[in-house]
Amino acid sequence: xxSAKLKKLVSNNVVVVVLILLCIGFGLSNKTFFGGRNVxxxxxxxxxxxxxxxGLTYVIILGGIDISVGSIAxxxxxxxxxxxxxxPDMNVPFAMFLIITTGIVVGALCGLINGVLIAxxxxxxxxxxxxxxxALRGLAFILTGGQPVYGLPTSFAFLGASRVIPTQTMPNGAxxxxxxFTTIVVVIMHILxxxxxxxxxxxxxxxxxxxxxxxxxxxxxxxxxxxxxxxxMAGLCGVCIASKLQNGQPNSGNGYEMFAIASTxxxxxSLSGGSGSVARAMFGCAVIAVIKTGMDLLNIYSYWQNVxxxxxxxxxxxxxxxxxxSRGK
Length: 329
Description:
- The protein is mostly helical.
- It is 74% helix and 1% strand.
- A two-stranded antiparallel sheet has the order 1-2.
- α3 packs across α12 and α8 packs across α9 (197-207).
- The longest helix has 29 residues, at 92-120.
- The two termini are 26 Å apart.
């Protein structure tokens, strides 16, 4: 392979190269980084961010944004916890049904509000979702009185905290159930975006909404459905958090939107719309998870971790703008 092809390959897969370098660096710095238990923890930590990022990919491809996903997650977690208290003897299948259904319904309703305001009332996405973010977070605190919802049955924790496939070193299970669940959801989201007519319409609207409208695409409908999908992913994220903690925290999901946006942009989704991929966004999620876990192993102060994540977001935005200018030239 000549240097030109190698340079093009690296430039098209920067996030993969960064991920590999980070893994090598943290692996050399701490011997436990590549241990089975730590790898399992990284995958588990990725899940909530992966759910949010997969939904955000749709709206960012449209040229929009959704800052409310963290608050949607918080409300969904609180509501499913209150419902869970009413069924103290529920078994695992019923708990799974309850959690997933609640996440879908609550997330869809919240996404529907955002979608209607943005698609049919022409509210600017940033203004709309910041407003719903604030309102929904307030609602979560009103519902709980500012206190966590405790006393949930043990079956409630199966999705978020249980593991399967035991090994000698990990007798309680090596693979978290939440990883299996998230993988299935992300694959569905990837197929929907990349292999269906709806997905092609999302790209068309994001590239040029006027041309898409003249081509017969219902632009408002595509925007509405995309925000509903984003809301559903946030709802599933919230109930997974509640299941993992086995309680409903009104403050859960706070700030998660920044990690999800960073992961999506790191994965190559353009903030100006028209391009992106759910699969590549997962590499962005992996970068964020590896950095957080690696810094934890190195005992780096949590505030410095926030500084690093913030810097990553800035770098991702700058790279996105540079690529946009390069394509323009």
